[in-house]
Amino acid sequence: MSESLAASAAPASAGPQKVNPRRISVAPMMDWTDRHCRTFHRHLSRHTWLYTEMVTTGALLHGDVARHLDFDAAEQPVALQLGGSEPADLAASARLGERWGYAEINLNCGCPSERVQRGAFGACLMAEPQLVADCVRAMRDAVSVPVTVKHRIGIDTIEHYDFVRDFVGTIAEAGCQTFIVHARNAILKGLSPKENREIPPLRYEVAYQLKREFPQLEILINGGITRYDEIDAHLQHVDGVMVGREAYHQPFLLAEVDRRYYGDTAPSPSRLDAELAMQRYIGDLVERSGYMGAATRHMLGLYRGVPGGRGWRRVLSDARRMNAIRTRDGVDALFEEARSHLHAERPLQAA
């Protein structure tokens, strides 16, 4: 398996085709998949299904709703991930999400952080499948868009298949049709969220078995997926693949997704295409008194592995200089300086 996701490859099938819209998605990632990140990813792929960071019901019901939910229609398709465990609160939050225009409402049953556990949601909810079913039922009664669940395959030392099978079966009875399976256990005590993404072993066969046992459900797989050939292999067994940190650190992998997995015959964007689109977006952001670094921080992997990429990243990660920029001309000048580090190797075409 030597084929990198960031490398060009032949499409899985030629010509337009009707495919599952969630065939490829980017995982919800706290502090990363905000509206600026999603805008950047959308300039690389028109079809990849995108998710927000997790938003808690408390933040929506008692905080600044617009700050948490505002997004640009150009980001679509985009799903809202909610964190919570009170059916009424989740229903009210889902209703807000639908009103704001999100294409899906996803319930987080996979986050293992202690802060999330103190709020009695995330991965610890897997121990209470009937409560999750009540939450899903309440949300489905409140909205017309799909309600989905993202979860682990077990918690702590519970590793037998029956546990996750019964969890999925109970939630499916409440009407949930789509399950995103992070194919690791969640260790609720003793491991950090980062360690929970690395230490518990990946057991993809559990997600495969869920699809065999529940063929009527849409099963997506998540966890440690970094290459196209891995995606191809998973799609032989499940309905979709969710890519996490690889899509953030190596964002140019998304440039081939439309052609390879959605049968889109339009030309794939180049790195320069995506950069120039974000340059215009950031110019608009700055003219609205925004800070350009809020968006450039999500772009820093665009030229990873390209000669001159380190210099490009250095310019666009200089917080002191970016903080002083107040005009579109200033944004354009900084991007031009960043690209000057790339000129010798002609890296501005799709690789």
TrEMBL record:
Residues 1-22 are annotated as: Disordered. SUPFAM superfamilies: FMN-linked oxidoreductases. Transmembrane segments: none annotated. Pfam families: Dus. Its EC number is 1.3.1.91. It is an enzyme of class 1 (oxidoreductase). Gene3D superfamilies: 1.20.120.1460, Aldolase class I (3.20.20.70). The active site is at residue 111. FMN binds at residues 28-30, 81, 150, 182, 222-224, 244-245. This is tRNA-dihydrouridine(20/20a) synthase. It comes from Cupriavidus cauae.
